[in-house]
Description:
Number of domains: 1
Mean pLDDT: 86
Order of helices and strands: HEEEEEEEHEEHEEE
CATH superfamily: Umud Fragment, subunit A
Distance between the termini: 66 Å
CATH architecture: Ribbon
Number of helices: 3
Radius of gyration: 19 Å
Low-confidence stretches: none
Helix content: 10-25%
CATH class: Mainly Beta
Amino acid sequence: xxxxxxxxxxxxxxxxxxxxxxxxxxxxxxxxxxxxxxxxxxxxxxxxxxxxxxxxxxxxxxxxxxxxxxxxxxxxxxxxxxxxxxxxxxxxxxxxxxxxxxxxxxxxxxxxxxxxxxxxxxxxxxxxxxxxxxxxxxxxxxxxxxxxxxxxxxxxxxxxxxxxxxxxxxxxxxxxxxxxx
Length: 181
């Protein structure tokens, strides 16, 4: 009788672990070139879905989200503008005006992952509450908030945590600090 009980307990534990993993982690594959050089076509990534249960996305986070235009399609982009902030692109420089009214260029923070600045301007636009302004790292070859608008927070699946395939590209995804000095 204890063998049947042990098998039952093991099955219940396995089901609980399965659902816990499904709720907190997701695998995805990169499609397209919008995040080059940071991420390339066919790379496999692990996404932590639970990270935003405890806090909001921050500027610089690389996120996976349901497309605004097609909810069956998942996309990868970098968070640039936070709710309530204003985003503007002038002469190849992305400017952010934060919620305190301070305006700063992002180029100092982005130099580690941007190959070339955006080649078109974008008018000063305030990010609505509950939304985010996202852009691909390959600024001139990315379909992002500049073309389809701000990303509703409810579309965000999670934060990219690990590149695990191909194995030669294995790495934890760095978080970039945007702390203003």
